[in-house]
Every structure is written in C-alpha cells, then in structure tokens.
Specification:
There is one protein chain. The protein starts with a strand and ends in a 17-residue tail after the last strand. The protein has a single domain, classed as Macroglobulin (MG2) domain (Immunoglobulin-like, Sandwich). It has a five-stranded mixed β-sheet, with no helix packed on it. It has a four-stranded antiparallel β-sheet with strand order 2-1-4-9, with no helix packed on it. A two-stranded antiparallel sheet has the order 6-7. The chain is mostly beta strands. The protein has no helices and eleven strands. 0% of the residues lie in helices and 57% in strands.
C-alpha cells in the first residue's frame, strides 16, 4: 500500500473521486492564526491488500519529528481511521486499486516553523507531506503591518 498526499484549503471524496480546492501548497502565511487544512489522499492498494481492513493514522509532526499538540487542552493533532477496499465486479485480477480519502483539520494554530503530515498504516509510512508556516512578506495585501510582530 502507498499513498499520494496533497495539502488543500478544502477537499472532498465523493463516489471514488477527489474534489480539491486550493490544493498543492507547501507554505502558509498564518503563524499563530487559526487555519483549516485538508489532507487529500489517494491510496493505492495491491490486489492482495483488498478486502482487508487497514488501520490508518494521520498525524502532524514538527520538522524534527515531534508530535504537534493543539487546542485547549493541548492534544496531539492525530486522526485514526479504518479503511477496507473491495474489488469491483469485473475488474481484471491483479489490478491495483485506488481509494480516495480526505481528512479535515479546522482551527489549527501553529507557530512559525516547519511541519510534516505523515500518513501511516501500522509501521509502514504511506506518505509524508512537509510544509512551512511563515510570516508574510512586508506589504502582503490583507495583512496589516505588525500583524506578526515583524
């Protein structure tokens, strides 16, 4: 099993397809401000991995590998899910199967720095997607001077 992971402003998985808005970013100008992040994943399974329940874990880590905590009280930014992909009727034996999955995280408040989303199944890391939270450059529209203490 493997996965492709995309960071998005919004995403949905409907009828076996991903619908993505504002996807593919790796930097966000919002240190200390609440943000929403959607993880759009396309999971590819080998024929022999179908019709088996798989445990998935998505978690947010610092670039140093530490678990990120958020909220009040602070809790790890982590979601556990189960997935089982069946074989569609008439598909040729041995065909790889794909399954879209979307996880949404609202109200994350992250300080400036580097982060990575990690998607795993058991001990196997399926995908990693790094990103940066950075202060906006001076004069960026929509951010008054001094918003981020610079």
């Amino acid at each position: 099993m493997e996965a492709d992971l995309l960071l998005c402003d919004h995403a949905e998985a409907v009828n076996g397809k991903l619908y993505i808005n504002g996807g593919g970013w790796n930097a966000i100008f919002a240190p200390g401000l609440p943000i929403s992040v959607y993880l759009a994943a396309l999971i590819t399974l080998d024929w022999n991995e179908s019709n088996i329940r798989h445990q998935l874990v998505a978690e947010l880590l610092t670039e140093d590998g530490e678990v990120v905590e958020n909220g009040d009280p602070p809790q790890p930014v982590r979601v556990e899910a189960q997935m089982e992909v069946g074989r569609p009727p008439g598909i040729r034996p041995g065909t790889e199967l794909v399954a879209p999955m979307v996880l949404g995280f609202q109200g994350l408040t992250l300080p400036e720095g580097g982060y990575v989303w990690r998607l795993a199944s058991g001990d196997a890391v399926l995908a990693r997607r790094p990103f940066q939270v950075v202060a906006p450059p001076a004069g960026l529209p929509g951010f008054p001077p001094g918003t981020f203490g610079r």
